[in-house]
Amino acid sequence: MIPYNFDYYAPATVAEAAALFQRLDAEGKQPLYYSGGTEIITIGRINRIYTEAVIDLKRIPDCRQAAVQSGKLVLGSALTLSELYDSRVFPLLGETGAGVADRTSRNKITFGGNICSKFIYREAVLPLLLTDSEVRIAGPGGARQTPIAEAFDGQLRLGRGEFVVQTVTDESYARMPYVTIKKRKVAAIDYPLVTVAALRTSEGIRIAFSGVCAFPFRSQAVERMLNRRELPLRDRIDQSIALFPAPVISDIKGSAAYRELVLKLVMEQTMRALGGE
Amino acid sequence: MAGTDRYTIVLELNVNGEMRRAAARPADLLLDVLRDSFGLTGAKPGCLNGDCGACTVLVDGWPMKSCLMLAVEAEGKAVTTVEGLKNTAVQREFVDKFAFQCGYCTPGFVMNVYGLAHLRPDADEHTVKDWLQSNICRCTGYEEIRDAVVSVLQRRASSAADAAVAEDATNAADGAVDSPMRKGSAANGSDT
Ligand SMILES: Cc1cc2nc3c(=O)[nH]c(=O)nc-3n(C[C@H](O)[C@H](O)[C@H](O)COP(=O)(O)OP(=O)(O)OC[C@H]3O[C@@H](n4cnc5c(N)ncnc54)[C@H](O)[C@@H]3O)c2cc1C
Ligand code: FES
Ligand code: FES
């Protein structure tokens, strides 16, 4: 049971949602956008998040869209991770998302909810980072479309009242070779010890990480090092880890040293699978 | 809870093919409304955190953890609980294969397997494992549960199973699948 009350709104349009947020915010209701709602419910139950109004985005057709428009794959933020996996429209995204939670939970967890999660993993963002996708964001101030590299620095930078409506990805990326590997501590279902997603483009291998540092990331410096084929693969991997933007984390799932060991093995497997040795 | 009256709404939910009304808070979980307002105690509270699957029901034919859903979100959708299944092939196979011990996890497993058998009758080993990993059995009866699932899927694949499933159609509440990407691909009236 959620130990406090809130009102529930299900707007039908993007503009209505943004206007609702603005009004409820002005009334001091601390509104939250609500997509799958699984995080709001589970952390709300233990009083780690509070709101007096939730704004459900699932009835907004734009947030449920899945379409190809002029060579661009447009995906609504309220699509569930199961829908993305089943559709096969963007296999790298579908499969990376399929590593999150379990199948039944993924029938509810949404793409937008995962990338805007307060947890540190946000694994569904990795394919967006690898494919230089853009994010369509709307809010009381109007709508904008921003490259993911600008909008996301460990977490999505949203202004007050802004929410993710859709992501836009060049369709050609959906056909490139990819690898996505998730290693957990023990169980088949868990947050990651290490998640690596990678893509091979004509310029080289791109790689992004979750569970390794305190936020998901893709780093140009790491990729430059990994693509220096004149060096032995293991040396490239060792040196690229030194270029990570933050320390490797140590927690109940694994010490930093253990995580780094697993990471190196996964990176080697990934590079070999994509012909990057 | 202070000021709850001001938040009370009347919910109208389609549960097991019947329209039911309940006075509830928008913050109430589907699990709690099913159990406390409708007396449908088949869906079980376990972890209340999305981890165990004991609370699984079907929403428009899809397995859903009712502890991860607000009751208000289910308005306009078809909710099926284990009470809505009457002597279906899945239930019979669970009995035949001794696929439960204490039984606490059973309704959740049955609903998930029922959803799987209808949405993915041709499920391969990977898909079966992927879906079934959503539920935990504290008594660890996994082998027997797996045997029951394999048997259900085999029955569905055979023509004899079609008759059994047609019989289920009259016994189970059904719902259309509402997915923008898989319209019409799953639960359809003829075999649900
Ligand atoms: C059983 C279980 C296992 C899990 N395992 C994993 C895992 O292995 N890996 C992993 O990465 N995560 C995991 N998670 C976390 C889950 O992916 C996140 O909590 C995710 O946020 C849930 O998505 P949702 O759609 O339900 O989000 P919601 O609860 O709707 O929202 C989450 C947050 O994002 C905000 N938000 C939602 N949509 C938008 C939007 N469109 N624009 C702006 N803000 C928005 C909300 O206001 C809220 O703060 C797990 C969760 C559960 C319940
Ligand atoms: S009670 Fe819902 S998943 Fe455990
Ligand atoms: S039979 Fe006891 S929990 Fe599964």
Automatic annotation (TrEMBL), chain A:
Q: Which SUPFAM superfamilies match?
A: CO dehydrogenase flavoprotein C-terminal domain-like (SSF55447), FAD-binding/transporter-associated domain-like (SSF56176)
Domain FAD-binding PCMH-type, chain residue ranges per copy: 1-174
Keyword annotations from UniProtKB, A to Z: FAD, Flavoprotein, Oxidoreductase
Keyword Flavoprotein included in the entry's annotation:
yes
Q: Which Pfam families match?
A: FAD_binding_5 (PF00941)
Q: Which PROSITE patterns match?
A: FAD_PCMH
Supply the name of the protein.
Xanthine dehydrogenase
Q: Which organism is it from?
A: Gordoniibacillus kamchatkensis
